[in-house]
Amino acid sequence: MMTFDQVKDPFQLDRVACFGRTMNEYVEMFNLDLDELKGKTILDCASGPASFAAEAQKREIKVVACDPIYSKKIDDIMENAQRDIPAAIRETQRHRSLFMRQTNDEDIMFLNEKLRALTTFANDYKKIDACRRYVAASFPHLPFYDDSFDMVICGNLLFLYSDPETGGILENSNFDYLFHHRALHEMLRIARQEVRIYPVVGPNKKTHPFVNELLNDESFFPYDMQFESVMMKDIKGATQMLRIFKRGI
Ligand SMILES: C[S@@+](CC[C@H](N)C(=O)[O-])C[C@H]1O[C@@H](n2cnc3c(N)ncnc32)[C@H](O)[C@@H]1O
Looking at the 3D structure of the chain, how many domains does it have? Predict the structure, then answer.
């Protein structure tokens, strides 16, 4: 299952990176139509230090962000992100063939965008009402009622951070198939309409094997699962998201 690149030179990550993207990147990862989403509710798990919840609020989209790091104080989250963001970018530089970014200038632009997301996130996280919008929780059990959000999204956690033996990038990851199975059922329990997950490929640019297992798992047969092309261009081959619809909507 491992690619030649990974065998030669595995990703050196000691945990899931504390790394967050901007709203523009969320639009590109999940094909979000911001006008259509006005007044709608979205659960973003795992959101990390992303600025999606903060930026979406200004567009009248109600986003709740959910991540285990929200049990920490803002200074600790900032410290983790300021360590992990440059470290993650250094790893992408060591694996150039797997990414669209090819030059140091592009990396600097990418880094600055992540630092902008971090600052926007931090300013929002310090606000008085933030505890209602940033909820500390982890897959596979999330503290939300059934059907409580129009949409539930998950970016850059599932599939990607599984063990390299199973097609991901995190050595000794405990995100096995059962974890993914439970996480997807949890997202579907909470979503009123649909779930979107990005990316669905591992570093070998092929659909992650857990995605295929989920598609063939009869407990998901009641749902419509579809791949959809997205605009996001960062990981080579990560050109699609998985959309899972609850039927009858
Ligand atoms: C790489 S970040 C992705 C952030 C954001 N979705 C984005 O695309 O920019 C992954 C996040 O997953 C969180 N995480 C790790 N284990 C988790 C779990 N079991 N359940 C939910 N989130 C988890 C980490 O704390 C981290 O903030």
Answer: 1
Contacts of 107 (CB under 8 A, 6+ apart): 89, 92, 93, 101
Residue identifier of the C-alpha nearest atom 22 of ligand 1: 46
Per residue in 68-123, pLDDT tens?
Answer: 999 999 999 999 999 999 999 999 999 898 889 999 999 999 999 999 999 999 99
Q: What is the CATH number of the domain that holds 67?
A: 3.40.50.150
Query: Residue 181 sits in which domain range?
Result: 4-246
Please tell me the distance between residue 73's alpha carbon and the centre of ligand 1 in angstroms.
16
The answer, yes or no, to whether any atom of ligand 1 lies below 6 A from the CB of 16, is yes
The Å distance, Cα 17 to ligand 1 centre, comes to 7
At 60, which amino acid appears?
A: E
State the DSSP H helix or E strand holding residue 229, giving kind and residue range, or none if neither. strand 223-229
Q: Is 0.90 topped by the overall pTM?
A: yes
Q: How far is the CA of 248 from the centre of ligand 1 (A)?
A: 30
